Amino acid sequence: MTIPRPDWHADEPALRGLLDGTVGPVFAASLESHVMRCGTCRDQLNLMAYDETLERTWSAIRTTVQAPEPTWLERFLRSCGLSEETGRLLAAVPAMRGAWLLGVAVALGFAGLAAVFSGDLGTGLFLLVAPLAPVAGVAAAFGGDADPAQEMVVTTPYSATRLLLLRTAAVLATCAPIAMLVGLALPGPDWLTIAWLTPAAAGATVTLALAPRFGFTNAAVAVGAVWSVLTVGTTQAHHPTLLVGSVGQLVCVVLAAIAGALVVSQFRSFDLPRRQP
Amino acid sequence: MSSARLTGIGKRYGRHHALQSVDLDLSPGVTGLLGPNGAGKTTLLRIIATALAADQGQVRVFGHDPTTARGRVEIRRNLGYLPQEAGFPRGFTTFGFVDYLAILKEWTDRDSRHAEVRRVLADVDLGDLTTKRVQALSGGQRRRVLVAQALIGRPQLLVLDEPTNGLDPAQRARLRDILSTAAQTATLVLSTHQTEDVAALCERVVVLDGGRIHFDGSVAELVASAAGRVWLAGERHARARHAWRTGTGLWRNVGDPPPDVELAEPTLEDAYLLLVGDHAVELEMEAVS
């Protein structure tokens, strides 16, 4: 039995639809039946399928070759389980770069050394620097000059609040291990290693709470100034750990809670267009 | 149909009125903003792009109110914005920077996002420089990277502040091609100091000066306003508001011509200079009176 040669051929849109799976099931069955019998349409379909495969292959090659090479920070963040997108959003912040982290490590290192060799004065210096590192990090993560592309970033639909919290969390997560490592070397009670964490959290939260009204940089400077005055005062009174003692911890927790509530109530203001250039 | 409608917009920086009672309707097509430095062009574009809040008046973009959170997000989903001045985060490649903005523009699928980034970079002729660090690019190339990020997702509203700044003539011509293509389906508003860009690209021109709109009409209408006020002569004329010696050795005088002079065909630049100059004269008269 011979199969009669068809006297018609499927046009390109129909064959393309068959390849893409966009034609209806009845038409697809009819086309398939036709293609099985028609060498011309089979050749045409093979050619189109080859083009599609070639384009997909080239697309995959281009994606691999032209994809941005992740920085060490992005690779590290991905190894910590963060997505590529989150890693890229964090990599744009100066406070997440090597130079910044090195600066924090050096400042805390000196403070730790001073504590080892100078007693109260050094401990006071460490307690001055450690909580302020995250505060400065918050300012550097979202202050006016933090992202040179800020003018474009604010006009994207991505939530500024989400970006702010993401970057703040990242800054705290990078500062804390450095300060804790230095804290391990401090003379005095073991709890001193982590005692600075509460004032650090309070300082960062108060900075976020004040930022919508005064700006990130001004808020961080104000928090830093207040903390510096208090730390210098207690150090001069030979009670450098007073601020991180039980009463100080309680005050910081209350302050952080109030500031946190303020931040939540002001979430929308972070997304607002600026009033001043 | 109006894409963006601004009514009675006012903006102050301290005592300085950057914008005063500005009414503007933007429709699909290209609208060019012309004006001297400090005229309020950038402030106006930043307000349209939701980067800055107006002190007075009402803004609606695609019917959405930018003073509400939902309205802002809806506007920003259809917006491409090129600011006058913008920097780049350190260490980013050309591809990485545009990819960064694409992520912020809610392109969550990696493959389609990368394809879109490749498309916009190819559109601005930077397809071969995707792996190069932005800091290593020339000024014109960096400007094109910024234009590329504005084109992500083929936005319905393109707000471009001096897009041709720093580009050579060939690059400007290429950019005009890209923008005119984009404007077939979108509303494009751009500011520039280059009157030839406006003449070549814009069907509508708005002249701002001192925070107010002094002209809003077609390029042809603005050019026609200078008819009979441009003449060529062997020397600079005392009645000319602006005059310069051309390559032919003749002086092109723009102002109120004396009788019996050889009138010349006005250009958009002539008309713009006259309009801004007339406004300056009006201000002087007001100050005197």
Notes on the structure:
The complex is a heterodimer of chains A (277) and B (289). By secondary structure, chain A is mainly alpha-helical. Chain A has two domains: 12-66, no CATH class; 72-270. Chain A is built from 13 helices and no strands. Chain A has helices spanning 12-20, 25-37, 39-66, 72-79, 84-91, 98-118, 120-142, 150-153, 160-184, 192-195, 197-214, 216-236, 246-265. In chain A, α1 crosses α3, α2 packs across α3 (39-66) and α7 runs antiparallel to α12. In chain A, 39% of the residues are buried. By secondary structure, chain B is an alpha/beta fold. In chain B, 36% of the residues lie in helices and 26% in strands. In chain B, the strands form three sheets. A six-stranded mixed sheet of chain B has the order 5-6-7-3-8-9, sandwiched between helices. In chain B, β6 (157-161), α6 and β7 (187-191) form a beta-alpha-beta unit. The N and C termini of chain B lie far apart (43 Å). Chains A and B meet through α3, α5 and α8 of A and α1, α2, β5, α3 and α4 of B.
Instruction: Point out poorly predicted stretches of chain A.
Output: none
* H/E topology pattern of chain A: HHHHHHHHHHHHH
Helix content of chain B: 25-40%
Order of helices and strands of chain B: EEEHEHEHHHEHEHEEHEEEEH
How large a portion of the residues of chain A is in β-strands, by DSSP E? under 5%
Task: Return the average pLDDT of chain A rounded to an integer.
Answer: 79
How many angstroms separate the termini of chain A?
Answer: 84 Å
Helicity of chain A, in percent? over 70%
Strand order of the largest sheet of chain B: 5-6-7-3-8-9
> What oligomeric arrangement do these chains adopt?
heterodimer
- Structural class determined from secondary elements of chain A: mainly alpha
How many strands in all of chain A? Answer: 0
- N-to-C terminal Cα separation of chain B, in Å? 43 Å
Number of self-contained structural domains of chain A: 2
Biggest sheet descriptor of chain A: none
Global Rg of chain A: 30 Å
